[in-house]
Amino acid sequence: MTFRSPFQLVNTAGVNPQSSCFARSFASKASGSRQKQSEARKDVSTVEDPFDAPTYNIPEKPVTFTEGASYSLIILAGLAVAGAAAYGVFKELIFQPKEYKIFNKGLKRVQNDGQVKARIGSPVTGYGSESRNRAARQRIPNRIWTDEDGVEHVEVNFYIRGPHGAGKVYTEMFQDKVDKQWKFTYLIVEIKSPSPAQLMLESYVPA
């Protein structure tokens, strides 16, 4: 029996040992190259794109003293306007002017009077002047004074209208010093249509 070396056996099988070593060396280099390319791609992917950065990283332009002062003035002006409007509404609703208080009392007295309703009908409405301007109609002509005894008087006059006619009201009230209540000095209704008439609804007689 003839003994053959491993190289002879390989040669007999038709495989070149040098070629096999070369193939293993090439595969190892190719694998290493692919690993390096993969790591390079990972490194590239982890680099942040400056164009994709959040917009809040952009530094803001500093506000100058002049701009800050202008903004403060605008804010203060807005608060002042809002405060004035709120005060006007509060004063109108809570602190009703005396002339409007007397107007409301006089109109209510006229609206409840049977003579007035018989002549001009019902309901009866009241307004400050014969004008189409709403603001002018809401203004009530008045006179306020204090007599020698320290008693405050308020005099108003206004127009009234019903379904069948119209007229004008003249009234004065004073604030009693004892009970602090407003009382009529007089209340006169001058009917102008449909037929002229004058009605004395209130007349103060001292006790």
TrEMBL record:
<keyword id="KW-1133">Transmembrane helix</keyword>
<dbReference type="InterPro" id="IPR013261">
    <property type="entry name" value="Tim21"/>
</dbReference>
<dbReference type="InterPro" id="IPR038552">
    <property type="entry name" value="Tim21_IMS_sf"/>
</dbReference>
<keyword id="KW-0812">Transmembrane</keyword>
<keyword id="KW-0999">Mitochondrion inner membrane</keyword>
<keyword id="KW-0811">Translocation</keyword>
<keyword id="KW-0809">Transit peptide</keyword>
<keyword id="KW-0813">Transport</keyword>
<dbReference type="GO" id="GO:0030150">
    <property type="term" value="P:protein import into mitochondrial matrix"/>
</dbReference>
<keyword id="KW-0653">Protein transport</keyword>
<comment type="subunit">
    <text>Component of the TIM23 complex.</text>
</comment>
<comment type="function">
    <text>Essential component of the TIM23 complex, a complex that mediates the translocation of transit peptide-containing proteins across the mitochondrial inner membrane.</text>
</comment>
<keyword id="KW-0472">Membrane</keyword>
<feature type="region of interest" description="Disordered">
    <location>
        <begin position="32"/>
        <end position="53"/>
    </location>
</feature>
<comment type="similarity">
    <text>Belongs to the TIM21 family.</text>
</comment>
<dbReference type="GO" id="GO:0005744">
    <property type="term" value="C:TIM23 mitochondrial import inner membrane translocase complex"/>
</dbReference>
<protein>
    <recommendedName>
        <fullName>Mitochondrial import inner membrane translocase subunit Tim21</fullName>
    </recommendedName>
</protein>
<feature type="compositionally biased region" description="Basic and acidic residues">
    <location>
        <begin position="36"/>
        <end position="45"/>
    </location>
</feature>
<dbReference type="Pfam" id="PF08294">
    <property type="entry name" value="TIM21"/>
</dbReference>
<keyword id="KW-0496">Mitochondrion</keyword>
<feature type="transmembrane region" description="Helical">
    <location>
        <begin position="69"/>
        <end position="90"/>
    </location>
</feature>
